[in-house]
């Protein structure tokens, strides 16, 4: 059987040269039906968070309400916004009774995957074994949050960063407090340094027993009736 000049598209008018993408190909007809069926399933997508419930709680699981950011489009190309998907569970970096708590906020755009069965019964049963909540499969109602997508419009104010080279770790809160580690200085907390041998230095005064009757200033205390410590000693 020869191959027609039409390349991979073939020539449907010549017997024996019909390709699986040809207009009269039975394979193509079935493939189109499969594409239509698969188009009704969802597996992975991005969505904006429109509501957060139990954010940063240590006793109640966090859930979010979301709206997908990629609109739906019909055969003619007309676009329609998605509705709200409610009660999406938010995983955390957790093992046993240890957890990192940093739940998303309203306005974040997240990455979501879709479980292949209705997990609503298991979710309401604190993720214990349960029957599927319905017969739905690969439905966006069974989404799970997988992390926030970074955006230029969001200005980072507090962070944990792993630095390259001789750098170590940088932790900063939104109030400007910063903890930095590196090879040369050890740990540096707002100017107070603790090196790898345990030596501590501070650019400002150190006070012990702050607010108590036994409060002592390292730079301002006196010995008996004598003067304060001599600078440089």
Order of helices and strands: HEEEEEEEEHEEEEEEEEE
Q: Classify the fold: give the CATH topology of the largest domain.
A: OB fold (Dihydrolipoamide Acetyltransferase, E2P)
Largest sheet: 6 strands, antiparallel
Question: Any low-confidence stretches, pLDDT <50, length ≥5?
Answer: 1-8
The CATH superfamily of the largest domain is identified as Gp5 N-terminal domain
Number of strands: 17
Protein model, in words:
The protein is mainly beta and 233 residues long. The chain has two domains: 44-148, Gp5 N-terminal domain (OB fold (Dihydrolipoamide Acetyltransferase, E2P), Beta Barrel); 159-217. The chain contains two helices and 17 strands. It has a six-stranded antiparallel sheet, with no helix packed on it. It has a five-stranded antiparallel sheet with strand order 5-2-1-8-9, with no helix packed on it. The model is unreliable at 1-8 (pLDDT under 50).
Topology readout:
Blueprint lengths: L25 H14 L4 E10 L9 E6 L3 E2 L5 E2 L4 E5 L3 E3 L2 E3 L8 E6 L5 H5 L18 E6 L10 E4 L4 E6 L5 E5 L3 E4 L2 E3 L5 E2 L5 E2 L7 E2 L16
Antiparallel strand pairs: 1-2, 1-8, 2-5, 3-4, 6-7, 8-9, 10-11, 11-12, 12-13, 13-14, 14-15, 16-17
């Amino acid at each position: 059987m020869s191959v027609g000049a039409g390349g991979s598209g073939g020539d449907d008018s010549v017997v024996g040269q019909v390709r699986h993408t040809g207009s009269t190909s039975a394979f193509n007809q079935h493939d189109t039906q499969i594409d239509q069926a698969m188009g009704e399933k969802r597996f992975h997508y991005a969505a904006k968070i429109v509501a957060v419930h139990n954010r940063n709680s240590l006793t109640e699981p966090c859930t979010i309400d979301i709206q997908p950011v990629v609109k739906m489009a019909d055969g003619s190309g007309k676009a329609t916004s998605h509705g709200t998907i409610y009660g999406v569970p938010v995983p955390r970096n957790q093992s046993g009774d240890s957890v990192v708590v940093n739940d998303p906020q309203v306005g974040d755009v997240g990455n979501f995957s879709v479980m292949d069965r209705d997990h609503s019964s298991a979710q309401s049963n604190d993720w214990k074994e349960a029957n599927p909540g319905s017969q739905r499969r690969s439905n966006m109602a069974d989404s799970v949050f997988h992390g926030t997508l970074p955006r230029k419009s969001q200005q980072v104010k507090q962070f944990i960063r792993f630095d390259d080279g001789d750098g170590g770790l940088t932790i900063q809160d939104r109030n400007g407090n910063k903890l930095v580690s590196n090879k040369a200085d050890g740990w540096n907390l707002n100017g107070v340094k603790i090196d790898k041998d345990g030596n501590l230095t501070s650019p400002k005064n150190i006070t012990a027993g702050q607010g108590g009757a036994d409060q002592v200033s390292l730079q301002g205390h006196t010995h008996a009736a004598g003067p304060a410590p001599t600078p440089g000693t």
